[in-house]
Amino acid sequence: MSLSSGICAQLYDFARTHNGQNISTTLNGVDVRIIQRHEDADHILRLNAANYRKNMAWFRLVFGPSRFSEDGHAWQIRRELTQSYFNKFDREKTFQLASHYATQAISSLTKTATASDRIDDAILRTMTASVLVENFFDIKLEATGIDLSILATFMEAGSDYSFVPHGKTTDLYRNRLQQLPDLRRTVLRQLGYFRDPELPQSPLLHDLLAADQREADRIVLEHELMTFMAAGAETSAATMSWACYLLALYPEIQDRLRSLSQAFWQSSHPSWKTLASIAPLARFISETLRLFPPTPIVARYAIEDDNLSDNSVPAGQNIMVSFIGIQHDKRLRDNPWQPDITDSRAQIASGDTTAFSIGPRVCGGKQFALLEMITFLSIFLTRARFELTSDEPPAYLWKSQMLRQGGQPVRVVEL
Question: What is 193-231 written as a DSSP string?
């Protein structure tokens, strides 16, 4: 098991054994402060964000500079490049695309049900990537020739470096690093499709290509596209995988949500506005993100001395904010280990807020992701039943997002 996959399980252990407490530990030979208190995460990521720079040197080395890895001016210009498209995305188009590709995905999942008792994550990845690419680039995913399995393999190999403190490596990591160049070249070559001068340019692609030509900004189209795919497609695919697991684990919740979904799609004018207003469906997505945040941790580095609620932070301290710990805090909800789709008063550290991070570097595609996922969910529930095939607790796999090792033990049965 890689360090990054192993730490996912460790974060859940910390959330149980040191609930609501920050922890000092050693990771890869480096002292690290694990933040599990929401008030301290808010201080680090929002109130005093200027004192805590991103600590992602290895991630940048593997995937290249992007909005995800950069700070300061480099982050700002990348944010300005893409954020307006996330802010003004076409909700009706997203709703229609998500409905279409969710229908295709559920058909594929039900066809494989007789041959497998596991969810095929590749089907979910194709679904989310199809919506993303067609929505923002007006191109069908299959037309690009991008092999998502190669991209996923590269992300898995590169993601081993997500939690490696700067300057510390082992023979394992050096050996894995040697495997990356061939994968990287293949991925970059595939993403080079978007440089084809004969390709119709959507507004976003036009702006990305123009930025790529400005040498001073050091923006590389393929680097931005890799991050775009990881943040915009992999996150939603991972969340929907965990959603299928929770539906199977809690059949009474599944039945209630199915009734709401069927009523919605049988109404005279189903629309994205109406769907987004169905509170139990929205809360289920939020609870999925809370229980199984696709990005469970963010790494920071203290620039100057600071103080948190429980202790001081010296300059140079490695910080890891655990969304698993924050979102399972017993101070904020009675039973943080089970989904609650009621009208809970516990709004602090809900999945639809903290799972997308906090402060100025909050995920720019949050609203897009929430709309497409509630649409996916409603289609899934209307067309299939989800049955648990194993009661074994999850073993975690870090693959740019937190997945389940071996896939979710869920059989998808057509209704």
Answer: GGG-TTSPPPHHHHHHHHHHH-GGGT--HHHHHHHHHII
Range of the domain at 392: 3-414
Contact 166, 299 (CB under 8 A): no
Is 54 in contact with 71 (CB distance < 8 Å)? yes
Give the distance from CA 235 to its chain's centroid: 3
Sign, CA torsion 132/137/140/141: negative
The span from the CA of 413 to the CA of 337, in Å, is: 27
The span from the CA of 291 to the CA of 199, in Å, is 41
What pLDDT is recorded for position 178? 67
Is 8 annotated as ligand-binding? no
Task: Give the span between the Cα atoms of 104 and 111, in whole angstroms.
Answer: 11
Instruction: Please report how the helices 235-249 and 279-291 are oriented relative to each other, as an axis angle in degrees rounded to 10.
Output: 100
412: which DSSP letter? Answer: E
Of 63-77, 298-312, 368-382, give the lowest mean pLDDT range.
Answer: 63-77
Q: How many other C-beta atoms lie within 10 A of the C-beta of residue 361? A: 17
Q: How far is CA 251 from the centre of its chain?
A: 25
CB distance 78 to 67 below 8 Å: yes
Residue 401 in tokens: 């997002």
Which residue bears the tokens 């009208």? 343
Give per-residue pLDDT as tens, 99-158: 999 999 999 999 987 777 999 999 999 999 999 999 999 999 999 999 999 888 888 777
- Whichever domain contains 300, its CATH number is 1.10.630.10
Q: Give the Cα separation of 282 and 413 in Å (integer).
A: 23
What is the value of pTM for the model shown? 0.94
In eight-state DSSP terms, residue 346 is: -
Q: Give strand pairing partners of 25.
A: 32
Q: What are the CA-CA distances from residue 229 to residues 66, 130, 156, 396 (Å)?
A: 12, 10, 13, 21
Q: Averaged over 245-252, what is the pLDDT?
A: 98
Count of domains for the chain: 1
Q: What are the DSSP calls for 350-368, one per residue?
A: -HHHHTT-SGGG--TTHHH
Task: Using the predicted structure, report yes or no on whether residue 194 has a pLDDT greater than 60.
Answer: yes
Q: How far apart are alpha carbons 126 and 142 in whole angstroms?
A: 9
Instruction: Quick: pLDDT tens for 262-301.
Output: 999 999 999 999 999 999 999 999 999 999 999 898 889 9
